[in-house]
Design brief:
Structural class: mainly alpha
Number of strands: 10
CATH topology of one domain: Serine Threonine Protein Phosphatase 5, Tetratricopeptide repeat
Strand content: 5-15%
CATH architecture of one domain: Alpha Horseshoe
Largest sheet: 2 strands, antiparallel
Helix content: 40-55%
Strand order of the largest sheet: 1-3
Number of helices: 19
Order of helices and strands: HHEHHHHHHHHEHEHHEEEEEHHHHHEEH
CATH class of one domain: Mainly Alpha
Radius of gyration: 23 Å
């Protein structure tokens, strides 16, 4: 079975214009013998889902856990990679990783999804099964196009198999056309999929609805956000998980708050992620990679539990519990690894090369240091969409439409008080639209800190000019860097089309100022 899947993935990666001999070997899969049955369709579908996973955090991945927060005031990227450059104004169109990786991986998903849709008619399947597979293909293709639209703007739209020569002559669709393709794909998925998936981790009707809601949100089409959020809630499938801390733990995966996530397991075949290795912390002389670490700017954004001023003599006391559930701070308690138990009296123990040493990521990490995975085998799932996002997206839509501001505040307060381990002061109902907008944006930053959403929020809200320049300091108060020292560059709201792609197809016009 594994050998057949490997052959399939090789086939999926082959050029669409390859010529095949008339005599086909019997010991491997070829396009003439594939697909033969529903099992082959399932292999093909697995090949599309597999591209959502990221087993090398150097490539940043499509969703990147909280890595993309390194391009925001939330986190610091030590080193000079594309994420760091995207956060400080030094990025160029020739950079790799974030610039090229999201483009190539998203189009790989699109290619495989199109291939799956093509071969569905070549296998005798019950109508309901064929409908399900088609729905998942459209869901995954919509997911890929949404990432492309959010990152690059309008991109070439491909909805069928094409040759290599055809690929070299593609032109960019408009941003509106690209988002329209996203919505169209999600609509097919919503129509085709059921409330429950046949297998954990696969797309559902609710996942397609919620991702469609995010697509409307990223276009600032708030009437559609409100409509779709209401549809998700009407499914009665989701709720806030009782523990914010527990939401990101292995033992609570696929709980009632998770609408769609990316599945990881420990194993020797790159089935896990490097997240813990490069975003973790150590004890004493034992360090993790700590490549991406939270900043004091993020710490300072957390409110106190009762709304009182922060104690200048103990700034970590009486703070929103989400602070310590998200960040290793001085005083954090971790179950033992090389010690029976460990209290971080002086803060995290980050990699010696990282000048920011007193803070580290806690979200998406094993709490018991005795159970740390080996490098590349972190098995905690990456949550792409959860119910709290539906609540806050709905609240944002109500605020921006200036409809029922008290109702929007009530939704925000559900997030602030609706869990057993997070109870902080409620916001007053009588806020103005401008005040409510400020509170909503703050709440999204805190609730989704180190989950990779703030980068998109900053760009769609166009608030870069308001938060930069920004100084990042080390644990001793020394300046590490000043981000966008001359002010935020507005053209960073879209990243450049990779120059490697433009070299293959000169018809791909570059984004302005890149």
């Amino acid at each position: 079975m594994l050998k057949r899947l490997i052959y399939l993935l090789l086939l999926l990666g082959a050029s669409g214009c390859a010529d095949y001999l008339e005599v086909f070997p019997e010991d491997k899969i070829t396009s003439a013998r594939f697909p033969e049955n529903e099992t082959d369709i399932q292999y093909t579908l697995n090949g599309v889902y597999s591209l959502l996973k990221e087993n090398s955090i150097y490539n940043e991945g499509l969703f990147g856990f909280g890595v993309l927060d390194g391009a925001t005031p939330n986190a610091f990227n030590w080193g000079n990679g594309p994420i760091a450059k995207a956060g400080n104004g030094q990025l160029s169109s020739s950079d790799g990783d974030l610039v090229t990786y999201r483009w190539t991986r998203a189009y790989a998903i699109i290619f495989r999804a199109n291939y799956l849709l093509k071969i569905l008619d070549e296998v005798d399947l019950p109508a309901d099964r064929k409908k399900m597979y088609a729905g998942e293909a459209h869901f995954l293709r919509g997911l890929a196009y949404s990432l492309l639209a959010d990152t690059y703007g309008g991109v070439p739209i491909i909805t069928s198999a094409i040759s290599a020569d055809e690929a070299k002559n593609l032109v960019r669709a408009s941003l509106e056309e690209t988002w329209a393709q996203v919505i169209a794909d999600y609509d097919v998925a919503i129509s085709n999929l059921e409330l429950k998936a046949p297998q954990t981790g696969r797309a559902t009707k609710g996942a397609a609805m919620a991702m469609k809601m995010r697509a409307w949100l990223y276009q600032n089409k708030y009437d559609k956000v409100l409509e779709t959020a209401n549809q998700v809630e009407a499914l009665n499938q989701y709720a806030l998980f009782p523990s914010y801390e527990g939401l990101f733990k292995k033992e609570n995966e696929n709980n009632e708050e998770v609408i769609f996530d990316i599945q990881y397991i420990r194993g020797e075949n790159n089935q896990g992620s490097f997240h813990d290795q490069y975003c973790g912390t150590g004890t004493g002389s034992f360090t993790r990679g700590s490549r991406y670490v939270p900043t004091d700017d993020l710490v300072d954004a957390y409110e106190t539990i009762d709304g009182s001023p922060v104690d200048p003599n103990d700034k970590f006391r009486n703070r929103d519990p989400r602070l310590e559930f998200t960040i290793v701070i001085p005083g954090s308690y971790i179950l033992g690894f090389r010690f029976p138990n460990y209290i971080y009296s002086g803060g995290a123990f980050n990699h010696p090369g990282n000048r920011l040493k007193h803070l580290s990521c806690r979200k998406y990490r094993e709490n018991n240091m005795a159970e740390l995975p080996v490098s590349g085998q972190s098995e905690i799932n990456n949550i792409v969409m959860r119910y709290a996002d539906v609540l806050l997206s709905k609240a944002e839509a109500m605020i921006e439409l200036n409809q029922d501001i008290p109702g929007a505040i009530a939704l925000i307060n559900r997030v602030r008080t609706g869990r057993a381990d997070v109870k902080i002061s409620t916001l007053p109902a009588g806020l103005s639209q401008a005040e409510a907008r400020q509170k909503l944006r703050h709440e999204r930053r805190i609730e989704f800190a180190l989950e990779g959403l703030y980068w998109s929020d900053i760009r769609r809200w166009k608030i870069g000019k308001d938060i930069y320049p920004l100084t990042i300091k080390d644990h001793l108060g020394g300046i590490i860097e000043t981000r966008f020292p001359a002010g935020y560059l507005e053209y960073y709201n879209l990243l450049p089309i990779p120059v490697s792609e433009i070299s293959l197809n000169p018809g791909l016009n570059q984004n302005p100022n890149w």
